[in-house]
Amino acid sequence: MNEFELIKKYFLRLSKSNKVESSSTTNFIRSVNLNMQIFELFGRSFSNQRVIADRGAEKAMRSLLSDLRPDDAVLGEEYGASSGSSGLTWVLDPIDGTRGFITGTPTWGVLIALSDDTGPLFGVIDQPFIGERFIGGFGVSQYKGPLGNTGLTTRATASLAQSMLYTTFPEVGTERDRLGFKAVADQVQLVRYGMDCYAYALLALGQIDLVIEAGLNAYDIQAPIAVIQAAGGIVTDWHGRPAHNGGQALAAANAACHAAALDLLRPFADPV
């Protein structure tokens, strides 16, 4: 049995154990987000072969979705978009944080979102090697990890001067993007780099206050949006508009932090 068939068999077994009904979107979502252990097996099977890992994982997820949710559309990093008739789209990023994955740091993750035409309804950020999972949507906001299960709640930091800010790359994106980030970074208490999707998870967990990025795709941001919003945070683009299609993104723990950062970012926002 090859790695793909092994992964699919494992994922299907876990799904069936939760009595998934193909007619129930909510039940299927719960099954998927509760059973991301597939990627622990997956990581052992493929070691650090990132391209094989990305494509194999997305192929396995698409195969399962085709069986259980045949009317839903799918958008993934590796295989693009496939159409559906239900009005729902599964947005998949099997390995978000390629550099972290290649170098062995546990800051990469698996991103799964379910969206409609208004944006993400539900999201999962999963880090399989350290066993942490962040879930948000449909009335659920939950962390599951080595220390147990708990609800997700963002911080109540009142000002930029007290805020902790993350981004993935020091250059952020274009020179204009970098200058926008710097305008906020110069005002905050602490700046850190290189966390990929794990930074958004930390924001939802109440550990940090801001994540600012640019040049994103929809599959990079939709799961984090759902998780952060369910935890009480705000995610927009640098104009203050919905960010679920990608581009520039500002994620904030609360309205005060968001408003203060947005005022500084707006002059550097991409033209409408």
Sequence-ordered SSE layout with sheet pairings:
Blueprint: H1 3-17, H2 25-34, H3 38-46, H4 50-68, E1 73-76, E2 80-82, E3 89-96, H5 98-103, E4 109-116, E5 119-127, E6 132-137, E7 140-145, E8 148-151, E9 164-167, H6 175-185, E10 190-193, H7 197-205, E11 210-216, H8 218-230, E12 234-236, E13 247-252, H9 255-265
Parallel strand pairs: 1-3, 9-10, 9-11
Antiparallel strand pairs: 1-2, 3-4, 4-5, 5-6, 6-7, 7-8, 11-13, 12-13
Keywords:
9 helices; 13 strands; alpha+beta; 272 residues; D-Maltodextrin-Binding Protein, domain 2; eight-stranded mixed sheet; five-stranded mixed sheet; globular; Fructose-1,6-Bisphosphatase, Chain A, domain 1
Explain what the structure shows.
It is a single chain. This protein has 272 residues and is an alpha+beta fold. The chain has two domains: 3-151, Fructose-1,6-Bisphosphatase, subunit A, domain 1 (Fructose-1,6-Bisphosphatase, Chain A, domain 1, 2-Layer Sandwich); 160-268, D-Maltodextrin-Binding Protein, domain 2 (3-Layer(aba) Sandwich). Helix content is 38%, strand content 26%. The chain has nine helices and 13 strands. The strands form two sheets. It has an eight-stranded mixed beta sheet with strand order 2-1-3-4-5-6-7-8. Strand 1 and strand 2 form a beta hairpin. Helix 1 runs antiparallel to helix 3 (38-46) and helix 7 runs parallel beside helix 8 (218-230). The longest helix is centred in the N-terminal third of the chain and has 19 residues, at 50-68. The model is unreliable at 1-48 (pLDDT under 50).
